[in-house]
Amino acid sequence: MREFRDREDAGDQLAAVLRRRGFIAPVVLGIPRGGVPVAASVARALGGSLGVVVARKLGAPHQPELAIGAVTADGVTWINESLARETGAGPEYISRETEAQVREARRREDAFDGHRRPAVSGRPVILVDDGVATGATALAAARSLRAAGARPLIIAVPVAPPATIALLEQEADEVVVLLVEEDFWAIGQFYGDFSPVEDSRVRELLDSFSAGSSTREARVTRNGVELAVRLRLPRDLPTPVTVFVHGLGSSKESPGNVVIAEGLVDMGVGALLFDLSGHGDSSLDPREDVDAYVDDLASVDAWVRGQAGVDAARVAIAGSSLGAVVALQAVQRGRVKPAALVLRAPPADLEEFRGLSTPTLLLVGSRDSLVEQATAAASVSPAIELRVVKGASHLFEEPGTLEQATNITTSWLCRQLAGTAVR
Length: 423
Known about the structure:
- The chain is α/β, with parallel strands linked by helices and 423 residues long.
- It is 35% helix and 25% strand.
- Helix 11 (371-378) links the parallel strand 15 and strand 16 (384-389).
- Helix 1 runs parallel beside helix 2 (35-46) and helix 2 runs parallel beside helix 7 (199-211).
């Protein structure tokens, strides 16, 4: 039985599932050593940061390979009480074994430069291993991360038996498992290549993240209003960036924008998501109207152009629904001058498009009531390219339609942002 070519393949498959959950720039922590290559693939695909959390199993008396529990470097434990009793592991034995394994866990974290682990408090954290059998180390690690304030905490593994999944669900907000297998005797049975992972490989993967891609959380201030922004850059070299404007009543966590942003980062284009004033983590502008939101976009656009690693000559803007109206208004008023503009299902009047000279992708679903309006809008300016996604309604919620919208948007933006290194 072979379900995964190797750990990288397992990580790619996990990432595809997690991406549909809408995660962007999460903290991804692998359990060394085997979990780290899987975690690296997940972090790379989701634009996340990578770190490790070391957990050591507590062996049973005279049966060191049988885990009666596990402990992390910070001393957080998970004990299988019934198995401990069955194997004669009393309190004194457990105390000695825990002390020894904490020392070893700390040594390993030092070896992997574990102090570089991204902060987890209040952030989405995805805990990854290459598979779980008893789940002892994953359970101890999850308990440690929960105590450190990870919110939400997701455990993601390629394969696990159902009884272990039930235990994991008690420690995490969500458990993602690709293959649930009753006939489970070893993790390696599900891999074509389950070669040992050396310490040097773990350090190499961690170094590749610390030296390259980055995620920046910041607050942009304008006239007393604070706007929460998240900028994801795939590399250190000057990079084109797309600024996303969400619809009203939504936030920077808008699933549609998040999925398209992740697709761009995969192709070497940076992405900035932010909360309009009065939404998400941004403060309120008493006006609460399009004028206020245009001011928001203009301020964020100016901010991102001054950031290290951003190619200021290649900044695009993508708006969805009423956020697309904000983007269109900002361009037409001369408040922003993007290299390209994407408008997804904008409820805008025909006159608002007249005179538009910025290269513009107008994207709408065939089942959206705005399709006729969008078709008419595309006829008023040669700068507008209309694309209609068959079977999609206003929010592109039908199966496969958001993927189509993502492919259309990312391909079009990469053509417009000339010089983008597509990966």
